[in-house]
Each structure stands twice: as C-alpha cells, then as structure tokens.
C-alpha cells in the first residue's frame, strides 16, 4: 500500500536494460514495494531508513522496476532463445522508413516472410522425424543397429511409420505456441487509459491509445501460423507416402489449398471485428482438423511399401521452395524499402539508407536457417555414427544416405562466408574510422582539459581512448550493409537449390578433376561446424540462464531491445513487455500527479519507456509532468533506427506536450547515450541537452586518494547537475 502523504513532488526513476534491482535504482539498501507486483513494481525506500541516493530535498524518490518482465523467470528466459528468429522477424517492420505504407506493402511482405519462418521450423522437425529417422535411417540395419528405440519402427510399413512420427512436428509446433502464450500472461491485461482495439495498421503512431495492445493481432496471427505449420506437415506427409489413388490426390490438393488459405490470410489485413475474426478462425480450424485427421488416416492406410533410397519424396523440393520464397521476398522487401526511404525528408532520412527492415529480415532468415541446419546436421551426424556424408564421401549402402537437403548445405557455406566477411568488414571499418574517432576525441579533451600536468598525461590518453571507443556505434552501418549484401549474394544459390545441386556437386562439375569438390566439401563441413557451435553456444547460454540469475540478466539485454515492440508480424515472438509497462507507468503517473508534480527520470532504455508513457498521458496530467533523461539512446539510436516512430517530429511533439520541461544529461564517454536535439534543431529550446564533462577532473582531489573515475553510462544521479535538473523541473511543473 502506498503511504505517501500530502502533495509531495515525486521523482519516478525508470531503469534501463539488464534488469537491475530496485535497491540499485534507488541507491538504497532497504526498499519496499508500494505498487505493482513481482513482475513489475514501484518501490521506495522503507520509511525511517533514510532517503534514496541522489535524492533532491523535498522530492520523494520512487523506482519502477520492470526488468523481471524479461529476466524474471528462468524457464521463460531460457526458452525464449528458441524464439530468436521469430523475434528478429517481428522487429524488422519497426525499422521501416517514415511515411505512409501505401497498400500496406511492407507489412504484407514482412508477414509473408514470417510465415516462411514457421514453415522452415516445421520442415526442420519433418526433416528430423520423418526424413532422417522414419525414411532414411529405420529401413537400414546399419543405422538402426544398437538403437532399440528405433528398431521397433522397422516393423511398421512406411505409411503408418510416417504418420506416427508426424506427432513430433505437431509437438514442436505446440511447444513454440505454448511458450509465447504462457510467457505473455504477465505482460497482457494492462490496457490503455482509453479503450481501443489495435487494427494492425503500421501507420499508427505512438500517440494512438491502442498502439501497445497487440493481443487481438497476435491472437489472429497465432491461429493462422499454426494452420500454416500444420498445413506444411500435411503436405510433406502426403508427398512422402505412396499415392493410393484418386482419393489421395484429392486429399493432397485439399492440403495444398489449406496451406494457400493460410498464406492468403497472412496477406489480408487483420479483421478489426472480434466476432468476424472468430468466425473465420473457427471455420479455418474445423477444416484444418478434418484435413489433418484425413491425412494421418491416409498415411496409415497407405500401401505397405518399404522406403526407397534417397530423401523423403518431396522434402528436398519443399526445403528448396521455402528458401527460394525467402530469397524472392527479401529482394522485393529491399527494393520497396529503398524506394520508400528516398521520399523521406532530409531530417527524417534513416540510418543504413533506410534498409533496416530488409537487414533485420535477412538476419531472421539467417538465424532460422542456422537453427534448422544445425538441428538436421547434428541428428544426421548422430544417426550415421559421426560421419556427415556428401556426394564425394557417401555412406556405405548398408547404412543409408542420411543426407540433409541441398538447401542446408548452401546455408552452411553461406553462413561461414557471412562470418568471415562480416569479421573482415568489421575490422576494416574500425581501422579506417580509428583516426577520425581519435581526432574527435582529441578535440573534446583539449576543450575540457586545456592545462593538464605532465603527471596526468596517461589519464588524458585513457579519456581520449574511451571517447574514441564510445563512437564505435556510429561506425557499424557498413557492417550491417555488408551483411545485407552477403545475404543478397547468397540468394544466387536459390537456383541451385531448386535443381538439387549442392556445393560439392557444383565444384565437381566446374573443377573437372574432383579436387575442388573435395576442398569445398571440407569447407562446407567447416561451415556446418561453425554454425553448429554458434547454435550450441546459444543452447548453453539458455541452460546457464536457467541455472544462473546473472546469465538471465545478460540474456535479458537481448529481449529488452527485441521485445519492446508489439508482435504484429510473427506471433511466436516473445511478448511485448511495453504492452504492460507503458500503460502501467501512465496509470501510476496519473495517480501521482493528483498529489503533486512528477518528474519521470529515465535512464538509458528507460528514457524510451518514459517517452512512450508521456505520449499516452491526457492533457490534464501533462501539465504536472516533467521529463529527465540521461544516458538516453532516443536520438542516437531510436530516432535513427525507428524513424517512423521516434523520428524528429515525434521528439518535438514529445517536448511540446510537456511545455519543454525536459532535461537530457549526456557524456562524451557514454557509448549509448547522447544529445536529443543537436545544435541547429528548429523550434527546440537550447537548454534541453546538458553535457557533463567526464571525468569531472583528471587530477586527484586533495581530500581523495584516487582521481575521479570515468563514469560513462552509469551513474548520473551522483552528480550535482542531476539534482539541479530535478529541482528546476519540479519548480516549473504545475
């Protein structure tokens, strides 16, 4: 229960990423929760135990701790690593350039690309259960030897065996569905101050009341993606069993039609009427259940013919078709995004030439391919007793082929190339920018420390290097553009996927003597192992997150950045914590302003939450609200990566709403934060940004034993400028 008496002014601190404790936010050892719950709550120092660190006289300090929304539950944090490709695909649409999304084309392309990720996930499970185990391994004595858990499957004909093993992809689909729905329970249910249903329109702005409420859109997309996944399984199953006559052909056409219906529903806007959406989904689900039962029954009753040699019929083509579709969608998405950004105004030109959306989409596809290839290769490697076959080094006939699809071989080779080229481009970029960054740092230290004793020269060099390193963030653009170029060049392999030619086969045809094929076979194997090691590292990280709270906080940094936005592209992505944090902050601030002025104090990513909260406050509340940001990435990162939502117009609108009662503290040594309004910004008061010299001095104070530290990104509340800003903002609030 909140025991705040009177009409006290309140400083409400909102922390940044990594899930820090309430004690650290308040810089006080004894705190008590006054509102909220264990997932996210508001804390104050326990009455009678003293004031919070950095408190301003006459201003009560309160902390909003939201970090447990992403780092609190061990199982949730560890399992979310499986959802990384889905999270990246959901993030892509939010990096779009500013301007009207004509015909909703960007959203359409991103949703279709997300649908291919679901198909890729299901095809990976199909490749392991139906292809490698049911079709390629079980029929061969050498593969099922010493494996009694597989030997009993040999007594089943191919059709019933594949039908039984289809349970594995269905269970895998249910797992990712369950993770997303279960982990969202702590996030959802915190509606806006004004009720509004989200329509899924990407042109909505941050000021719309229902912006953060993605439950309706996510619920619709979740059902459609499950239908897509089940439809992919049905088509793969029917293609794998021997045709049983006209009935089998008709059922196959129905299964393909159901898959096409799911694609069409992804392309269409999400129905705004819950009644209409429910009616469509009920009909779709009824057709899906009936079709799936008929497919399983048809496979069970299929002719008792043994598995043939090679891969599961149709599986190679399905994997190649998905890769080809992803390639085409990425090309179209790149062209549309680049065309769109050329129409943007000069002050809204986004970073990366507006290609943030296709770059993030390519990352989602690449991570999804890495997960898929690792799963299939590692299972194949285990089944054939440690040897990965290829056209140059096939298995003996008694063992069976155990050969993954050609698309995965190309994925492994492209992954190795991306890592090597990416590392090279990063090194070259940092080397070429080093002189420029050092020159800028030298000018800053010359201005801040004009007369430095010779004894402090080493400290001066340390400060200069710290400032130079803090500018690395601005130099990563070429690296990301190179990644998109590599992904685009990798699309050339789609043609080889479709015709079933792998890297070693292509090298054998071009090389003539076979030597090139052997070399490329080993290079491809190296790519397989590199990708596998990266994925295994993620699995280890997930296991450590389950066991260690510290590791969970490290993993949570990724989720804090990636799950800030609503899920409007891929429903299996981790849930949006801002769907709770923003309405909850708005409700708390509204209640506190009834007692006195409130200064929302946002550090780092907390400043983004604070900005989103102010954009959702009613005018009557805004007259008593001020904003203090520090170490803020609002302009340096968010305005550049998300110009359609945090661009200059949004930031100016934010300042105008609160009468420019806004102060932003920043340091040159901070690698994340920076000024919000650079010099020359039109219509901006000159006193919003306050630069703090860091360190405060190079020399040792006579009363101290060591020189002042380089504080960088944290802390800010220990400096006098912080308390001065709080006092000024409090006095100016109504």
Fold and architecture overview:
The protein has 734 residues and is an alpha/beta fold. The protein has helices at residues 22-26, 68-71, 74-79, 84-92, 105-137, 141-144, 148-151, 158-165, 167-183, 215-240, 246-267, 274-300, 315-341, 356-383, 406-448, 457-470, 477-490, 493-499, 503-511, 515-547, 549-562, 578-593, 605-614, 619-622, 634-641, 643-646, 648-657, 720-732, and strands at residues 9-14, 31-36, 41-45, 59-65, 598-603, 625-630, 662-667, 689-692. 57% of the residues lie in helices and 6% in strands. The model is unreliable at 1-6 and 193-197 (pLDDT under 50). A hairpin with a 4-residue loop joins strand 2 and strand 3. Helix 13 runs antiparallel to helix 14 (356-383), helix 19 runs antiparallel to helix 20 and helix 22 (578-593) crosses helix 23 (605-614). The chain contains 28 helices and 8 strands. The radius of gyration is 29 Å and the shape is globular. An 8-stranded mixed beta sheet has the order 2-3-4-1-5-6-7-8, with helices on both faces.
């Amino acid at each position: 229960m909140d025991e705040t008496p009177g009409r006290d002014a309140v400083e409400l601190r909102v922390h940044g990423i990594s899930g820090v404790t309430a004690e650290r936010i308040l810089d006080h050892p004894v705190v008590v929760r006054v509102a909220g719950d264990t997932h996210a709550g508001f804390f104050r120092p326990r009455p009678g135990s003293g004031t919070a660190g950095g408190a301003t006289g006459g201003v009560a300090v309160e902390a909003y701790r939201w970090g447990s929304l992403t780092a609190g539950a061990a199982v949730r944090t560890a399992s979310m690593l499986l959802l990384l490709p889905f999270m990246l695909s959901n993030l892509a649409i939010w990096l779009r350039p500013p301007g009207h999304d004509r015909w909703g084309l960007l959203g359409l392309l991103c949703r279709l690309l997300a649908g291919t990720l679901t198909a890729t996930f299901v095809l990976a499970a199909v490749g392991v259960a139906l292809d490698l185990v049911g079709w390629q391994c079980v029929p061969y004595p050498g593969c099922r030897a010493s494996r009694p858990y597989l030997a009993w499957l040999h007594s089943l004909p191919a059709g019933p065996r594949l039908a039984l093993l289809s349970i594995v992809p269905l269970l895998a689909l249910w797992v990712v569905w369950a993770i997303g729905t279960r982990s969202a329970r702590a996030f959802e249910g915190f509606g806006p101050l004004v009720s509004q249903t989200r329509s899924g329109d990407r042109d909505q702005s941050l000021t719309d009341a229902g912006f953060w409420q993605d439950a309706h859109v996510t619920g619709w997309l979740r059902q459609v993606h499950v239908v897509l996944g089940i439809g992919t399984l049905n088509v793969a199953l029917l293609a794998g069993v021997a045709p049983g006559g006209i009935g089998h052909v008709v059922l196959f056409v129905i299964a393909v039609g159901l898959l096409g219906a799911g694609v069409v529903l992804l392309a269409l806007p999400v129905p705004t009427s819950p009644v209409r959406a429910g009616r469509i989904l009920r009909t779709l689900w009824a057709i899906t259940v009936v079709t799936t039962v008929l497919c399983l029954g048809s496979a069970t009753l299929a002719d008792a013919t043994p598995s043939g040699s090679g891969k599961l019929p149709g599986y190679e083509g399905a994997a190649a078709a998905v890769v080809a579709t992803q390639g085409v969608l990425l090309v179209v998405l790149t062209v549309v995004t680049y065309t769109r950004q050329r129409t943007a105004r000069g002050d809204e030109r986004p970073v990366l030439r507006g290609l943030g959306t296709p770059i993030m989409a390519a990352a989602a596809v690449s991570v999804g391919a890495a997960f898929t290839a690792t799963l299939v290769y590692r299972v194949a490697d285990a089944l054939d007793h440690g040897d990965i076959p290829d056209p140059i080094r096939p298995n003996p006939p008694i063992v069976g082929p155990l050969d993954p699809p050609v698309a995965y071989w190309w994925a492994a080779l492209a992954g190795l190339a991306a890592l090597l080229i990416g590392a090279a481009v990063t090194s070259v970029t940092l080397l070429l920018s080093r002189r420029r960054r050092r020159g800028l740092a030298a000018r800053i230290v010359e201005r801040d420390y004009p007369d430095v004793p010779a004894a402090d020269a080493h400290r001066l060099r340390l400060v200069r290097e710290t400032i130079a390193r803090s500018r690395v963030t601005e130099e990563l653009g070429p690296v990301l553009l190179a990644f998109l170029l590599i992904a685009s060049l990798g699309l050339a392999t789609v043609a080889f996927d479709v015709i079933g030619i792998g890297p070693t086969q292509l090298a054998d045809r071009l090389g003539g003597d076979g030597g090139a094929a052997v070399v490329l076979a080993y290079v491809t194997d190296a790519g397989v192992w590199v990708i596998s090691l990266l994925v295994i590292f993620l699995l280890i990280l997930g296991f450590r997150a389950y066991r260690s709270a510290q590791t969970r906080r490290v993993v949570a940094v990724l989720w804090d950045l990636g799950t800030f936005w609503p899920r409007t592209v891929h429903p299996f992505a981790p849930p949006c914590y801002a769907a709770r944090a923003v309405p909850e902050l708005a409700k708390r601030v509204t209640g506190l302003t009834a007692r006195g002025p409130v200064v929302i104090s946002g550090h780092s990513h907390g400043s983004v939450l604070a900005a989103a909260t102010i954009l959702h406050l009613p005018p009557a509340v805004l007259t008593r609200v001020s904003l203090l940001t520090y170490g803020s990435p609002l302009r340096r990162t968010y305005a550049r990566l998300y110009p359609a939502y945090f661009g200059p117009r949004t930031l100016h609108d934010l300042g105008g709403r609160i009468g420019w009662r806004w102060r932003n503290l920043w340091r040159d040594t901070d690698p994340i934060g920076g000024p919000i309004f650079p010099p020359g910004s039109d219509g901006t008061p000159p006193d919003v940004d306050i630069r703090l010299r860091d360190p405060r001095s190079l020399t040792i104070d006579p009363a101290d034993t060591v020189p002042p530290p380089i504080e960088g990104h944290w802390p800010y509340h220990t400096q006098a400028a912080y308390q001065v800003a709080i006092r000024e903002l409090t006095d100016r609030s109504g």
